[in-house]
Amino acid sequence: MAISKAIIPGPVSIEVRCLPTHRITSDHPGLRYAISVNGDAPQIRDLHANEYTPARNANTIRAYSAGVTQHTLETAGTHKITIQMVDPGLILDEIVVQAAETPQ
Length: 104
Hints:
CATH topology: Jelly Rolls
Number of domains: 1
Strand content: 35-45%
Distance between the termini: 23 Å
CATH class: Mainly Beta
């Protein structure tokens, strides 16, 4: 993924949005994905929400389930984000990156 704005080194927040869905079967432990930036160790997030819970209701109303991770960029420039689906059934919809921008 190439980021078009100049990004300064420092903290970055990445929100992964997936379509709200259920586990494929009860044998699957969740709806997990793994994310890493620039080859760092992956962070795993579980987007599963039980039916009839406030989390599931919120996911349905906003039309996505979200997981947020924090990362640190060591250098300015272009960075590689790697996302792997750990469990079947996740449908990636959008990636939102929040980072500090260089002053203009």
